[in-house]
Amino acid sequence: MKVAFHPGCVSKGACPELYVSATKIAGSLGLELQELTEAPCTGAGVLSEQNPELGDSLNALTLAMAESMGGTLMTICSTCQGVLSSVNHGFEKKPERLEKANATIQDQGYTYKGTTKVKHLLWLLFEDIGVEKLKSAIKRKLTGLKIAPFYGCYILRPTDALGLKERPERKTYLEQLIELLGAERVEYTGSGKCCGFPMLTFNRDKSLSMGGNHILEAKDKGADALVTPCPLCHLNLDGQQPDAALALSKPIDTPIFHLPQLLGLAFGFSPQELRLDHHVVSTKRALEKVELKV
Amino acid sequence: MKFTIEVGRYNPEGKYAEDAKQGAPYPAPWSSAPARRYQTYEVDLPEHAVVLDALIEIREYQDESVAVRCACRSAICGSCAMWVNGHAHLACKSKLKDFTKDGKTRVEAPPSMPVIRDLVWDMKPFWENHRRVTPWLENKPLPPPMKEYIVSNDSMEELIQEVTCISCGCCLMDCESFAVNKDFMGPHALAKAYRYAADPRDAQTQERLGDYSKHGGVWDCTHCFECVQQCPKGVEPLEQILKLRRMAVNAGYTKNAGTRHADAFAESVKHSGRLNELTLLPKSVGLFNVFGQLATLPSAINMIRAGKLPPIIHKTIPGVNRIKAIFDKVGGRFK
Predict the structure, then answer these.
(1) Least confident of A68-72, A186-190, B3-7
(2) How do strand A184-185 and strand A117-120 relate by DSSP bridges?
(3) From the list A40, A104, A242, which residue is nearest B329 (CB)?
(4) How far is A196 from B176, CA to CA, in rounded Å?
(5) What is the mean predicted confidence (pLDDT) over B311-333?
(6) Are A93 and A49 in contact (CB under 8 A)?
(7) Which of residues 60-119 of A touch B (CB under 8 A)?
(8) Looking at the complex, does the CB of residue A11 fall below 8 Å from at least one CB of chain B?
(9) Are B105 and B53 in contact (CB under 8 A)?
(10) B214 in helix, strand or coil?
C-alpha cells in the first residue's frame, strides 16, 4: 500500500528514534512511504491559534501535496493528526475556508480539492492494513510485558473532527494493539489525558506534575512501560520524566515507547535497530521482561 | 429494563470528606483520587431512561440517604452535572443505555472538586473563578441621541456560543489544567470572559485582556480539548480561550511565554519550513530569563546524554520559498 507520509518535525528533531522505527516497521507491513519532504510543519495549533488563515494555508499545501500522490496521508504524531484532521474537517464544514486557503496556495502552483484522508499509523493499522496482515508480521509475541496506552489529546479530541463519532473504535485501537502483540494491557484513568507538553514553557511545574501523575498511576497499576502514538507526549513523559519525578518528589522510572517501537519489537527488530537505547528513561528493565537487551 | 448503578458515596472516615472542609485544599487530581465508597443499586426503568431517572428512583424508593442535586431535568439548569463513567456529564442528558459499561453505570462527584455529600459537589471554585473575570459589561457611554446602544447582529452572533453556557461546571470538572493548577481561572470563566471582552459595548476590553494574560489566565490552559468535548451546550470554551489569546497579543500583551513561544515557532517555520526545537524552548522561556533557563538545563542535559539533541545545524526543507511566500501573504504579525 502506497501512502504519502508526513513525519512531522519532532521525528526529525528531538525524537529521531520515532522516524527510524516508523520507517523500519513500514516495510514489515507492506507500507510504501512516500515522504512529503516539502511539506511544512502543521503549526501544532500554535500558528492557527494566532492566525487561523495562516494555519489553513500551510496545511492546505500539505493536504494538496498528499492529494496528488494518491490521497492517503499517513502521520506518526497525534498532534500532526489532530491539526490536519481539524483543518480538513473545517474545509468540509466551511467551504469558504478552503476557498481562501486555495487562493493563497494557488500562487505556489497548488490547489486542494478536499479529498485527502489523513490517517495516523495507528488508524491505518486497523482500517487499511488490517489485523490479519498485522498478525502475520508478528515474529515475537511480547508476552509478559505490561503496557499502558497513552493516546495524546489530539488523536482523541475533538471527536467530530477526528471522525470518532463515526468510528468510536478509534478510541480503543491502542488497547487492542497491545493485546494483539501479546502484551498485557494496563487499565488506568490517564490513557486519554493530557501529557502537559503544551503548557511546558508557560507553567513548567504544573506541566511536569500533569504528565508525572499519569505515569505514576500507570506504574501503580503495574505497567512496565507506556506506549504513545505522539512524539510530543513522548518528549514530556520520557524527556522530562526525571524533572517530573523531582516536581512530584516521587521516583517514576517508567520507560515510554513510541508506537512503532512497540510494533518493531514484535516484528523482530532489535532494540538497537529501533533506537530504544536512545531514551532518557532506560528501557532496559522493561525489555528484560521479553528477554531483550539494550 | 434492568440497570446497575454504582454511586460514589460520601465517606466521612476518608480523606475525601476532610478535603471538603472549608478552607482546606481541594482534593488531589484524579490520578491520586482519594478513597471513596461505591454503593451498588439495581433499578428497573424504560430503555430510554437517563442517569438522573435512575438516581431519583434510588433516592425515592430505595435509599433516601443518597444526595443528588437536580432541578429542571431538561439540560437547561446545569444542576445535575457529575462524573458518569469517569467524565463530566449532565445526568439528565445521559441515557443509561449509552452509559452502561461492563454491565453498570458509575456515577460520582468529580475528584477535582470539593464534595459536600455524595453526588453534590461544591461549586465554590467555579463561582470564585467566575467572579475573577469581571463577568459583566462595563458600559461605554451611550452614543447620541443617548437612548440605547444598538449593536449589529453580526457582533452578537459572534457571542451566541458563549451566551449559551448554563454554568453547569462540566468543563471545569474535567479541565486538566485545573486538576493540577488551582490558580487557573478555568474554561467556564474564560469563555465568559471572551463574551464580555468581545462585546462592542464593553469599555474595559484593554484592561480585561491584561488581566486575562496574567498568571492563571489564558496561557495556563493546556489545550487538551476536554472542555470542548464535555460541554453539553456546545460552548467550546477552548476556542474562546484561543480567541482571547489572539486578542491579548494583538492588544500588545506580548511579554509572556505564550507570545514568545508563538513568535519563535512562527519564525522557525517561516524560515525553514519546520520547527527548530533547539531554539524554541530557550526563546519561549525568554533569553534573559536566567532562572527559567536554569530550570530547563537538567532536562536538556538528559536529552543530550540520550542522544536526543535536535540537529545543531537546523535543516531547511526543500521548497521553503513557498512557505515564505505564504507567510508574506497571510502571515499577519508573523510576516
Answers:
(1) A186-190
(2) unpaired
(3) A104
(4) 9
(5) 93
(6) no
(7) 61, 104-105, 107-108
(8) no
(9) no
(10) coil
Query: What percentage of residues in chain A have a pLDDT greater than 70?
Result: 100
A239 to chain B, any CB pair closer than 8 A? The answer is yes
Sequence-ordered alpha helix ranges (H) in B219-319: 226-230, 237-250, 257-272, 277-285, 290-305
Is the pLDDT at A260 greater than 70, yes or no?
A: yes
How close is the nearest chain A Cα to the Cα of B148, in Å? Answer: 34
Residue B20 has pLDDT above 70, yes or no: no
Is residue A78 within 8 Å of residue A192, measured between CB atoms? no
Using CB atoms and an 8 Å cut-off, which of residues 80-109 of chain B contact chain A? 86
Average pLDDT over residues B197-216: 96
The Cα–Cα gap between B183 and B114 comes to 15
CB < 8 Å to A240, chain B: 299
Report the complex ipTM. Answer: 0.94
Among A74-78, B35-39, B148-152, name the most confident range.
Answer: A74-78
> Which of A18, A35, A46 best probes binding to B when mutated, by most B CB atoms within 10 angstroms?
A46
pLDDT at B117: 86
More confident residue, B25 or A236: A236
